[in-house]
Amino acid sequence: MQRKRLGVVVDGAFNAGLMVRLDPGVSTEEMRIGDFVIIEGAENRYFSMIADMQLRATDPRIAADPPRDLSPFVAQALAGTSTYGMVQVQPRLMMKRPDPLTIPEGTEEEQVQPVRTIPMHFAELYQADALDFATVFGKEGGKNFAMGTPLTMDIPICLDLERLVERSNGIFGQSGTGKSFLARVLLCGVVKAGMAVNLIFDMHDEYAFGRESEDGLFVQGLRQLFGASHILVYSLDEGAGARAGRSVDVVLRIGLNQIEAEDVLLAEELNLRGTAEATIGLLQDLYGSRWLAQLIEMSPDDLNAFCETSGAHPASVAALQRQLRLVGRRPYVVPQATFSAIDDMVAALDQGRHIILQFGRYNRILDYALVANLVTRRVRQLYQEKVERYEQSQAPADRPQPLMITIEEAHKFLNPAVARQTIFGQIAREMRKYHVTLMVIDQRPSGIDSEVMSQLGTRITGRLTEERDIDAVLTGVSGRSALRGALESLDTREQVLLMGHAVPMPIMIQTRKYDEEFYRAVGVERRSVAQDWADLFGK
Length: 539
Hints:
By secondary structure, the protein is α/β, with parallel strands linked by helices. 34% of the residues lie in helices and 23% in strands. The strands form four sheets. It has a twelve-stranded mixed beta sheet with strand order 9-8-23-22-21-10-20-19-11-18-14-15. It starts with a strand and ends with a helix.
């Protein structure tokens, strides 16, 4: 199939992009900001993105005094001669053009590489075809997973899942843009390809079981798609285990002895005073891991005795006690617990099984911040030990499976005030040093620390309207002005901008629908509860 020619290069610069005059008969309405196009130079083929569009006229009098009551015939006669369209094109990748005398058409001699030059005047701009998309984004299968199609074509656009799990990633977009369903699609790809194991903190119970979409249709959860042999469901809510067809594998309990200072100090909802850190330090010096249980149980006389012994200020200790009793009253918190349940999580992850931790009715930000931070800190500690053992033995059997941790409301853990102190901030900065990465989901990327944002390898971004959110998503990205225009042109739903480590160049796509066709495409069918139990117990 022959490509459609769109125009020729007439001006430009390496940093500013190339200006292309559109051919007569080619309308700007046929194109969109962010479209993938091809420039054929004399020696190189340039894979490019449309960054801007302009309307021009050869005679300034047309703009100063446009014809009145212009007939379609006159408009058509002027188009392409007196009036014409211009597009600004940003080359992103390039490759050597194959020699037609020695290389068959449709094959590629050179690898795609970053742009290091620009074509000369009159290089031709073409609409990209299926071969161009396959050359740049790969064909679906193996490590390549189709996330959607270009806005104007029905051709799969693939993410490289192997590169995706190498670094932390982000899914962003304002409320209603379908971030959770997009995350489901991506997680299904990772599970199916086996590129990493997943630990998913499911604040609103959206990932394990069926959920009603915004279209009013019920869609399948990961547990229902892949079964209990692949997906284990933990929950803080003891009532979750009694629901038919939605039963969980483990009801998790958190012990007061497991909660550390950073778990409560960094919880904004507790609003602890500046003296709280010093007071907790004194409690830990005296009571060790039982500091929180002892504080909650203190009577007024016990509190005064502690202050006399330690030198703590009575008012500060009393205020801290009042706030931390909120933690002790949470139904899933018990006086004493072992780390066995969390250690079992890590063992399951090591066996290639994926974990979804549901919060059920305990879905306050306090619950989410407390439990997610505590569990992740323990998981990361065990992974660090596994990596150190692997580095010593260098045995393939000791190599940890890459782990991707999914968190929502990410700005609560990664805002500038706490990002350097939370375990999530450490993971984002360390990248894959310990084979643990993050997938952060948020509608307020401006609330995430800029250093953390710059470490996110791949960003999947739906529509954003706040200027500071757009600026945050484009932190550390080249060609910001062109990408800003692409972001601002997205529809509210089912359209995203892919950019970063897992895609060769930024591209706008129509996202895949999470429906029966998708279930078949990932090779799974609807599963019954009986099938889940059969997988779990080998019957």
